[in-house]
Amino acid sequence: MIVVDEATFRILDTLSRELGSTISIHQLTSKIREYHGTAYYAGTYNKLNDLRKQGLITLTSAGRSSIPSLNLASYSLLDMLSEIELRKKREFLEKSKTLQLLLMDMESYAHANASIESISIINPERNARLNRAEFLILLHHANSGTFSHELISLDKALRRLQSARLIRIDSLSLTPNEFRSLLIADEINPLKEMLSNRITFYNPSSFWLNIAWLMRAAGKIKFEKEETTPGKISDIDLNYNLLRFGYRELGTGIKEGRRICIEYVASALLMQGGARQIDAVPIILAKNNTDYNLLVFLCQKYGQSGKLLGLLRVLQKLKPNSDIANSIKRLEAMGAKEIRADGKSIGDKMKVYDVNR
Q1: I want to staple 65 with a disulfide (CB 3.0 to 4.6 A). Which of 24, 283, 322, 354 is the partner?
Q2: Is the pLDDT of residue 145 over 70?
């Protein structure tokens, strides 16, 4: 086991939470204080210089400031980040002993399941207070012929754990391609928002190797700290993104808003909208590439699975797609109670928007 001293732990942990952000040493000191209680500029400055000499971080001049960043090309750093994850797990479980059995169950299941690469628990302290757990599960490269069955098997296993441990569980499972696409996307999406406050408790070395590989391939990736709630996405942002995705309500003025992923927009329409807005969901799904794993996760998390199931059944009849078919099977396996959608209204609207087979 690598021994990481306290000052190094605090600096590396904070930089890993702020990955992709441009922060000065003064700002880093404030962030360390926010996450860990105490920090002083002089101590941070001196330790950063030690870490730079070891090749673990870089310091880049920006005017009169120095910008510290993790050197993810350093294999030693990746080992340290993995040990930091394990230390965070130990400290979290000391404070949340009721979750020890759940994480042990998750690790045992993953150990026996060759498709799972790593597992992270998201916003662990806040969710533990709410008697819920949220997981990010990274999968190995999927065999397209068996992938749907693997996901359904995983969903069923998590439902059994939820019943056995008397805790609400939400889980997002992503393939390597999905993980890469979401992390480098120029839109707000849940994955970017998950990663700044997570503990990777199963196979953290693999998680950080993935991040390092993506950093080399993409040049820069950024974790986001603020979590988006679909039910609170503004009308300006919704209308702006609906137009981006090829849908516009007549009489609606469009102002530029934030770029938000289609899965958040669809979830927001299901949470906020009346019948006309909900009818927009199959239109944008049919006209754009959608990550259905992410969409199912969001609708399950925010209580919209029944609405989504009804819409997907209609969409599958009008514009068949294997991803939609597999999502229907997953929602059924999760026990979603279908809320029937108006197939005629949706079909008429799809003709208006020229969404063909």
Answers
A1: 24
A2: no
pLDDT above 90: residue 257? yes
- Give the separation between CA 116 and CA 137, rounded to whole angstroms: 7
pLDDT in tens, 168-180: 999 999 999 999 9
Instruction: Quickly tell me which residue has 């993935």 as its tokens.
Output: 210
Distance CA 107, CA 104 (A): 5
Helix or strand (DSSP H, E) at 145: none
Angle, helices 75-95 vs 204-218, to 10°: value is: 130
pLDDT in tens, 22-48: 999 999 999 999 999 999 999 999 999
What is the overall mean pLDDT for the chain?
A: 93
Tokens 């799972």 belong to which residue?
A: 116
Tokens 């359904």 sit at which residue? 152
CB 197 within 8 A of CB 122: yes
- Pairwise CA distance, residues 312 & 331, whole Å: 10
104 Ramachandran zone, left/alpha/beta (phi>0; psi -120 to 50)? alpha
Phi, psi (rounded to 5 degrees) for 131: 55, 45
